[in-house]
Amino acid sequence: MVTTFRKTVRDIVFTNRQLARLYYFVSFSRPVLPQWVGADYYREKSSWELQPERCPCDLEFIEYLQKMNIQDQTIFHFGTGSHHILGLENQKLEKPNEIIGITASAPEHQEYIRLSLKDRLLAKYYKVICTDIFTLTDRSLPMLDVVSLFHLGEFYMPEDAPFVHHNEESLIALFLSKLNPGGKILFYTKSIGWGNAEPIIKSFEAQGKIHKIEEYKNLLVYSPGF
Length: 226
Description:
By secondary structure, the chain is an alpha/beta fold. The chain is built from nine helices and seven strands, in the order H-H-H-H-E-H-E-H-H-E-E-H-E-H-E-E. The chain folds into two domains: about 45 residues, no CATH class; about 170 residues, 3-Layer(aba) Sandwich (Rossmann fold).
């Protein structure tokens, strides 16, 4: 009976993803989440252009970095978009930050390559990895000063567990372990996955593993609690 139930669930998920793929195909728009269309289809097709009215998180992050005069530090940024606005604005600083961006989208990474070929200075301080963030390990990352996990709750799929090292809880723990003294980790309260991310963040807060130090617009800023 359990096997039959699991098969039924898989069939429903498959059907829904097929319908989602058809929707994106006929509408000529880009898929937003891998849960809707499947990880492989997402990696191949998805691309997020700058849409401040729908998702201002990167612009708010830039404003926050400017407000706090964060320069010459090491930043990890989850979800670059095809706009790569964080890297482009970082170039304008007197002392640019070293930014490691990550995207699971091939088109977004291809746009990074195009921009880097057009302007070689972009890659001097802004490097973009194309991979699933949940495949990262302690050995993959340097020590960091600022981490943005704006898209927590949007991408993890239990079915991908054999191919990754982390779920969302262990991913937060990984990045907390890589923060330098005085480091910060930021979350975005208006993300599509906030309903999934908020309980996880609250759990870390309740356990004393993080504590909130400030808010900036839709961003929550935490520091390690240990």
